[in-house]
Amino acid sequence: MLLKCVAIDDDPLCLSILKKYCQKVPSLRLRGAYENPTDALPHLDRINPDIVFLDINMPEISGIRIAEIYNHKTTIIFTTSHKDFALEGFELNAADYLLKPLNFERFFQAVCKAKDRIEFKALKKLSFEDNDHVIIKSDYKNIKLKFSQILFIEALDNYVKIHTAKRNYLTLQNLKHFSKRLNGDFVRVHKSYIVAVSKIEYFSRDQLRINGREIPIGRSYAQNFHEKVK
């Protein structure tokens, strides 16, 4: 996946380093580098970059203000000499911030974060256009799971485990997140379980079985479940 990027920094040395670092990452294509932020603004809509490396403290217009305008269109990585600006950056949903002086290892780490975010947004967009699957983050990857693959979903202490016939996936996304995204084949049967109705082998008043696993039916969920499977 090739990513178009733009660098905006009023520090010529930092801008030169960003150019050099971008050239070292095969997936990056630097489409513009600007010391003056007002010179950069007319080009952002034309270039439509995937990533903008953006200094925070600049004359005429700050990086924070630019991010407020463009963060819904692109992925921001802030560059700054001041740790105090980091909080403002994250409040604007920046992918990361790089503290000056820059080093390549930290730069590459930030690019990987941004790339993950861009790929996740792209997959999420596809999921709305083709609503037969859900996107999960597991093992540092974005994974597309078809609804037909999912047997049931189980809440653990700090994770959710998604059970399929072939393997299980752990993710930090919670049951509420999945309740909103799954199709009509799924029903919440317990505070800790969502199940695929089509995968149920048998059920009674207070439990059911899927793929040999006994799953409790919570008292507060029982009526809705039994109406669903009538």
Automatic annotation (TrEMBL):
Residues that the record marks as modified (4-aspartylphosphate) are 55
User: Locate the HTH LytTR-type domain: which residues?
Assistant: 135-230
Q: Which InterPro entries match?
A: CheY-like_superfamily, LytR-like, LytTR_DNA-bd_dom, Sig_transdc_resp-reg_receiver
What PROSITE patterns does the record tag this protein with?
HTH_LYTTR, RESPONSE_REGULATORY
User: Has UniProt tagged this entry with the keyword Phosphoprotein?
Assistant: yes
Q: Which UniProt keywords apply?
A: Phosphoprotein
GO MF assignments:
DNA binding; phosphorelay response regulator activity
Note the superkingdom of the native organism: Bacteria
* Domain Response regulatory stretches: 4-115
Q: What is this protein called?
A: Two component transcriptional regulator, LytTR family
Q: Which organism is it from?
A: Alkalitalea saponilacus
